[in-house]
Fold this sequence. Notes:
The protein is α/β, with parallel strands linked by helices. The protein is 48% helix and 12% strand. A 5-stranded parallel β-sheet has the order 2-3-6-1-7, covered by helices on one side. A two-stranded antiparallel ribbon has the order 4-5.
Amino acid sequence: MAKITNEKFKLLEEGLKAVSNGNINILTLYGSPGTGKTYTTLEYLKEQSVNYEYINSYSTPLSFYELLWKNRYKDVVIFDDIQGINNPIILSMLKSACWISNGARIVSYYSTSSKMDLHGLPENFEFKPNIILIFNKLIQGYGPITNRGVTINFNFNFDDKIKIFDELKDVLDEDVLDYVKLNCNESTTNLSVRTLVILSNLKIAGQDFKLFAKEMLKPDEDKQLLITMNCKEWCDKSGQHRSTYFRKKNKIQD
């Protein structure tokens, strides 16, 4: 895939370099799915021969603790949108895993469960790797963790998405790109690199990609009204105040 020149991707490359070299202990990436967060991360780590572990499964506190234990000597551990990661016990483990106290990062889990012994797990251990967290949306309660490193927001407006798509003409079909520019806007849902790759593959295979595009790239009706209507029209139709119109419209544009 071509190298994207968007500032966020430049920052991502520097962030990956920093977390791989140990200059930061945690790098958090969040934003809409299909924006290249995971792909770019894994490609960088492979190219740089970083000893990493990629984890994207469901996790309970005990299984999460075991994952940390098993991967305690890696250079980097990536947690990608893991279900269950908002558990308070897991949050506490992550806090310990990404912050040095008394010269080391010590992770602890005190449990009366016999499963600790069954799995050969100690009550605490030193955790060496740095961490990359990847979310589609930031999870409540993660502020104390993400604040211990660098966080990059991968939510892009429509114009930025188009610029990124144009830099990926080696993987995205030109007819697909033309369709997006003609038929999509800020209200379009599911507009991502991943979606356009799927549509490009359908086009290359000789199928009518536009039939799929109409289904996959539907507009958010509320946003569409805000884009197409002026303030008075929108207020008359929605019954809401003009200040609400401008607040919501500014949010779309941001």
